[in-house]
Amino acid sequence: MQAHYIEFITVGFGLLLLMLEAFSKGNKSRLGLLAAAGLTIILILQFMVCPCAAIPEWMSRFYKYDSVALFYKVIALVSTILVLLMAVDFRKVLSRYTSGDETNSGLGEFYCLPVFACAGLMWMASANDLVSIFVALELVTITFYVMVAYMRRNVGSLEAGVKYLILGALSTGFLVYGIAWIYGAMGTTDLATITSIIKNGEFAEAKLTYLLFGIALMLIALGFKIGAAPMQLWIPDVYQGAPTPITAYLSVASKASGFLVLMLVIGPFITWSATSTQVTLILSIMAGATLLYGNLTAINQENFKRLLAYSSIAHAGFLLMGVASGDFTSVSFYLGTYLLMTFSAFFILALVRDQENSDTIDAFDGLAKRNPILAATLTITMAAMAGIPLTAGFLGKFLIFSAAIQSEASWWLIAIGFISVAAGFYYYLKVVKAMYWNAPRSEKSIQVPIITKVVLVLLTIGILVFGIWPQPIFDLLRLLN
Amino acid sequence: MLFALLLIPIVAAIAIFLGSPSRITALAAALANIIVAAFAITQGSCSVSFQVLENPNINLSLGLYDGMSVIMLILSVLVTLAAVYSGKCPEGREKLWFSSTLLIAAGAIGAFLATDVFFFYAFHELALIPTFLMIGMLGRGDRKAAAWKITIYLATGSIILLAGLLLAMGHLDSFAFSDLKAIPAEHQNTVALLLIIGFGTLVSLFPLHSWAAPAYACAPAPVSMLHAGVLKKFGLYGILRIGMEVAPEGMAHWLPWICVLLLGNIIWVGLVTLNQKRLDLMLGNSSVMHMGYIFLAIAALAANGDNEIAKPAAVLLMFAHGISIALLFSLSAMLEEKTGTLEIAQLGGLAKKAPAFAFLFGLAGMASIGLPGLANFAGEVMVFFAGFADWSPKDGLGWVQITTIIALWGVVLSAVYMLRAFRNIFQGPLVKKTSDACDICSCDVIPAYLLSAVLLIVGIYPQLILQFL
To answer: pLDDT digit string (tens) for A287-328?
Structure first.
C-alpha cells in the first residue's frame, strides 16, 4: 500500500463519521469510541505501509515518506485517539455547555472534527513543499477554530475561540507572506530544491536580505503555532477557555506539528553558513525568552489548567533550545515524551474537572486521601514534567541540554535553561503539595471511569519505562532507514 | 544480584503502597538487602550492564566499582535497616512512611552501585519526592517551610551538578566510570567549579548549608537518618569519584576556596551548633559541621594527587559519620517519644531513669566528637594526618596545612556542645519531663545496638573497612 493512501483513508473515515452523525440518534458518545477505534486501525495500517512503494510523480512533489514522517504521524494518530477517548469521559461537561442538558445530543461533531485535524497533522508530517505545508496547516487550524469554541454556552470557550481565530488568522497571514518572500528569493517552494540550491552554492548573495526577511516572517508565524515568545500571549487564555480535551490536543499535537514544520523549514538554513548565525541567534533569543516567560509566570498560577498552559510554553522553550542547537532527533524524542506526560496530566485534570467542577489547584487538595493511586500517578506525571530523573521527562531535557552544550550554544541560553528547570521544580511540586499536604475538600472518593483508568496506567508505564529505556523511541525515529 | 539490591526496596515500596503489611514488609526488605549485600561483597565482582541508549551511549550498569562503592553500600544497607526500625509512625500513615523510607534507601543504594555517570546522577534524585512528601506531611515544627527549602536547594544543586557533568561528558568517550579521565585543561576550572557548587550543595558545604539543619530537625527520624547518614555522602562520593578524575587541576585551582568554605563548615557552623537549644537542631548542625572534615581530606587530595592517606581518610570518615549520625537521630527520636520534648533545657537526669539509653546516647555522642576507640576517631585522625602527609617543615605551611591547624579547633567545639547536651539531658536532678520516662526495652533498640557495635568494632579495628580500598 502506498503511504499517501493513509491520509485519504483518514479523511474518508472523517466524512463517514459525519454522515453517521447526521443519521444516528441517541448516545453520541459511541461515535467517539467508533472514531477512536477507526483511528487505531489506521495506526496499525500506517505500520503496514510499504516504504519502498514509489510515490507517484504528481504526489511526490508535495509528499515524502520517511522515518521522521512516520514518527510524527504516529504522534498525530496517538494524540487524536487519546483526545477522543478523553472527550468520551468528558461528555457530561461538554453537553452541559452545548445542548444545555445531559443528552449528549450536541456532541456528534465534537467526535468527528479531531479526525480531520488528524488528517491534516499526518499530511503535514509528510509535507515536502511550503505550499503543502501551508494547506495542511490550514486544515488543522480551521478545525481547531471550531473545536476551541465548541462549548457555545460557555463564555470562556467563546472568548478562547475568538482569540484563537484572530491570532491564528494573523499568523496565517505572516506564514503566506513569508512563503512568498522565500519563493521570491529562492525561486521555488520545494524544500528539497531549496536544500540543493544551498548545497550547490547556486544562491545569489544579493537576495540574502529577502531570504532572511522571509525566514523571519515564517518564524513569527510558526512562533504562534508553537507558543514561543513573543508570540505566546494567546496560549494561557485559549488553553484555559477551550474544552479540556481540545486543550490537550492543542498542547501536544498542534505544538508537535508546529515544531515539525519549524524543523523542516529552518533545517536547511540552520546549517548553511550564510544564514546560520542569524537564524541560530533569533532561535536562541526566542528560546531564552520563552523559557523565562513560561517558567516564571507559571510560579504564580492558582489554576491547574492555566498552569499547564504556562508549562506548555516552558516546554516550547526547551524544544526551541534543541532546535537552536540543531539536534532534531532530541527534539522529536522530547515531543514523544511530552505527549505521554501532557496527556496524563490532562486526563487527570478532565477527571477532576468532571467530578469537582473546578480547574483550580485547590480542587486537588487531599487527593492522596481520596484516591491514592490517582495521586501517585499525578505525582509521577509532575515529576516527569519537572524533569526528575528516571522519568521520560528527564531524558528529554538531558538530551536537549547535552546537545546545547555540545553545539556550543550561547552560554546564557544554557544558563537560562538550567534556571528554568529549577523554577519548574517549584510549580510542579506545588500540585504534589496540594495533593498530599492539604486537607481534602470533601471525603468523597474520586471515581475513575474505565477508559481513563486504562489510558492513565498505559501512559504512566510509558513515562517510567521510557525514562529508563528510551531506545524504542529512537528506534521508531529510524525505523525506515 | 546487584539488581536485586535495587529492586528489593522498590518492589517492597510498591507492595506496601498496594496494601501489603507495612512494617513487616519494610523490615524484611531491609534485612534481605543486608543479606544480599553481604553475599555480593564476599562473592566479589558481579557487575551487570544493560544498554538503554545507543547515542549518546548510556548504560544501566551496576557494580561494585571499587572499595569506596563497597563501603558506601555497607553504610547504606546498615542505615536502611536502622531507619526502617526507627521513629514512630503516626496512625494510618504507615503506607507513606515505609514506602517513602524504602524509596529513599533505594535511591541511595542505586547511586552507590551505579557505574555509569547517568544513572549515578539519576538514582540520587529518586529520593527527592519521597523526602519532600515525608517532611511536608509527617514532619514536625515548621515542616512545610523546611520541606520546600530542602527540595529547592537539592533540586537546584542537582541542576548545577548536571550542568557540570554534561560539560565534562562532552569531552569523554562514554558515561561509564571506567572511561573517566582528565578533560582538556582549559575546561577543567569551569567543570570543577560547577561540580564543587553542585555536589557542595548536596553535601551542605558552607554557605549552601542552610537547608540541612532545619530539614533534619523537622523530618521524621528515618528521613533524617537516611539523609544525614547516607544520601549526604553522595556528594562527597561524587567529588572523589568524578570531580577528582575529570578535573584534578581544576580542583587544585579552586583549592583556596575549598579551604575557606570548609573552615566555614567547621568553625562557623560549629559556633552555630554551640548555640542550639534543641537537640534535633544541634544534631542537624553538627552533621553539617562534620562535612568540613571530609572536605579537608578532599582538599588534601586536590592539593596533592599522590596523597595516599587522603582518600581512605575521607571514606572512613564518611562511613563513621554516617553510622554515628544515624544512631544519634534514631536515639533522639526515641528521646522525644519518651519525654515529649527535645528542648535541652527542659530535660535532665534521664540517666537515672534510663541508664541503657543514656549509655547508648553517650557512646554515639562520644563517637561523633571523635573519642579514640570509636570509628570517627580513626577517620578524623587520618584526615589530620592527610593534611600533613608528604609535608616537610622546609616547605612552609600551605593552604591545606593552615586549614588543618585551624580545623583541629573544631574538635574542641564538638566536644563542648556534645558534652554539654549530654550533661543537661542525662545528668543532674530529674525534672518533670523525665520523671516518668522509662528505660528502653531491648527490642526497640536492636538497630541502635547494631550501629553502636559497628562504631566500636570499626573504631578498634578500622582495617576491617579500609581493607576494601
So the answer is: 999 999 999 999 999 999 999 999 999 999 999 999 999 889
Q: Among all chains, which residue has been given the C-alpha cell 499525578? A: A378
CA proximity to A453, closest of A369, A306, A351, A380: A351
| Cα–Cα distance, A149 to A157 (Å, whole number) | 5
Size of interface A-B (CB pairs under 8 A): 82
What is the crossing angle of helices B117-125 and A392-406, to 10°? 130
Identify the band that residue B45 occupies on the pLDDT scale cut at 50, 70 and 90: low
pLDDT of residue B463: 87
Query: How many of the other CB atoms lie within 10 Å of CB of B35?
Result: 11
Number of helices (H), then strands (E), in chain A: 22, 0
Count CA atoms closer than 13 A to A321's CA, side-chain side: 36
Nearest to B375 by CA among B409, B418, B327, B417: B327
Position B316 pLDDT exceeds 80: yes
More confident residue, A82 or A54: A82
Listed in sequence order, the residues at least 6 apart from B241 whose beta carbon sits closer than 8 Å to its beta carbon are B65, B68, B120, B177, B180
Backbone CA torsion sign across A62, A64, A70, A72 = negative
Residue A399: list chain B partners with CB under 8 A.
56
Residue range B53-105, pLDDT digits in tens = 887 888 888 888 888 999 999 999 999 999 988 878 787 788 888 989 999 99
Q: What is the pTM of this model?
A: 0.92
Contact predicate B348/B428, CB 8 Å:
yes
B181 C-beta neighbours (distance < 10 Å), count: 10
Where do the structural domains in chain B lie, given as residue ranges? 1-253, 256-469
Q: What is the mean pLDDT of chain A?
A: 90
**A122-178 pLDDT per residue, tens:** 999 998 899 999 999 999 999 999 999 998 888 889 999 999 999 999 999 999 999
**What ipTM describes this predicted complex?**
0.89
A366 CB within 8 Å of a chain B CB: no
Asked whether the beta carbons of residue A418 and residue B167 sit closer than 8 angstroms, the reply is no
Under a CB-based contact definition with an 8 Å cutoff, are residues A317 and A287 in contact?
A: yes
| B24: exposed, middle or buried (Cβ count in 10 Å: 0-12, 13-18, 19+) | exposed
Mutate to test the interface with B, among A321, A333, A405 (most CBs of B within 10 A): A405
User: Per residue in B369-400, is it b (16+ CB within 10 Å) or e — as a string?
Assistant: bbbeebbbbbbbbbbbbbbebebeeeeeebbb
Question: Which range (B2-6, B192-196, B251-255) has the least confidence?
Answer: B2-6
- Please indicate whether, in this complex, the C-beta atoms of A432 and B167 are within 8 angstroms of each other: no
Cα separation, A408 vs A414, whole angstroms: 9
Does position A180 have pLDDT exceeding 90, yes or no? yes
Q: What whole-number distance in Å separates Cα of residue A405 and Cα of residue A411? A: 8
Q: Please give the residue of chain B at the shortest CA–CA distance from A474.
A: B53
Q: State whether A469 and B52 contact (CB < 8 Å).
A: yes
User: ω before A230 within 30° of 0 (cis)?
Assistant: yes
pLDDT at residue A61 in the model: 82
Half-sphere exposure of A88 (CA within 13 A, CB side): 22
Query: What 3 state SS string does B205-242 have?
Result: CCCCCCCHHHHHHHCCHHHHHHHHHHHCHHHHHHHHHH
Would you state the cell numbers that stand for residue B310, as one nine-digit string?
587522603
Q: Do A425 and B151 touch (CB under 8 A)?
A: yes
For position B394, what pLDDT does the model report? 80
Residue B378 near residue B316 (C-beta atoms within 8 A): yes
Helix/strand/coil for B51: strand
Report the alpha-carbon distance of residue B73 to residue B6 in Å, rounded. Answer: 11
Residue type, A465: V
